[in-house]
Every structure is written in C-alpha cells, then in structure tokens.
Specification:
The structure is a single chain. The chain has one domain (31-141). Helix 2 (31-62) runs antiparallel to helix 4. The longest helix has 49 residues, at 93-141. It is rod-shaped and about 75 Å long. It has 142 residues and is mainly alpha-helical. It starts with 18 loop residues before the first helix and ends with a helix. The protein has helices at 19-26, 31-62, 75-84, 93-141. 9% of the residues are buried.
Length: 142
C-alpha cells in the first residue's frame, strides 16, 4: 500500500529515525530530572486529594459533630483516624479545630511546594531542550 499524496506517514507507525524519536533523544540528558519531575507531580496530586479528605473533620468540627465518625466505617475514616486520631482532643472542639487546620495548612504548603518544584523543573527541561535544539541548528547551518 503506497502513501497517499500529502498525507504523511500512516498513523500509529513511526520510522526508526522519525522526528518523535529524535526529539525524545534530546530528553536523554534530562532523564533523571524528568523522572523527578514526574514523581513530584504525582506527590502533589496525592497531597491535593489528602487536602480534600482533611476537610471532612474540619467541617464536622465546625458543625459541632465529632471530628472522627468512628473507626472502621470506611477506608477514608480509617485514614483520618491514623492521620488525625492523635490530634483530636476529646471534649475540646476548639483545640481539635486548631489541630486540623494546622494539618491542612501543612499539607497545602507541601502540595504547593511540590507543584512549584514540578513546574520549575519542567521549565528547566523545556529550556534545556530548546537550547540543545538551537545548538544543533547552529552547528548544522555553519
């Protein structure tokens, strides 16, 4: 089957030295940084979910309900019991609320730090690849 005029290579297949393979080759010097960026982005995503789960005891305490509903009711409640169980003060909703808010703030600081690191390293990789492409282009043109 021949190629149709103006359509390019068939989709789903790439030649051995195709442009995508060559561009991915330019990422090789930044492989460790790319891996670290992906790990930090995954950590930020997990922490984003943790912040949402931490809102449960915060809202319960605000509406004068027990911050933790009970052990074993769900996997989310079990997680909250493990993370916040030692911070919840029985009979003192103000202290419990303060502790939950501090944990939420600490988690948000970690999440935003991971987001920032991921975005920063992503730009470092991007600018490095562009610089490498410009060096290749200038070497080819001279």
């Amino acid at each position: 089957m021949g190629r149709l005029r103006g359509r390019g290579p068939p989709r789903g297949r790439m030649s051995a030295g195709g442009p995508a393979r060559r561009l991915l080759g330019l990422l090789r010097p930044y492989g460790w940084l790319f891996g670290a960026t992906m790990l930090v982005a995954a950590l930020a995503s997990v922490l984003d979910g943790v912040v949402m789960v931490l809102l449960i005891p915060f809202l319960r305490t605000l509406f004068r309900e027990p911050a933790l509903a009970g052990i074993g009711t769900s996997s989310t409640q079990a997680f909250l019991e493990r993370v916040l169980g030692w911070l919840i003060v029985a009979g003192s909703p103000e202290a419990s609320l303060r502790n939950v808010v501090l944990v939420i703030l600490a988690t948000l600081v970690l999440k935003n730090g991971a987001d920032y690191a991921s975005a920063y390293w992503n730009v470092v990789i991007q600018e490095g690849v562009v610089r490498d492409l410009r060096e290749i282009e200038s070497a080819l043109s001279s």
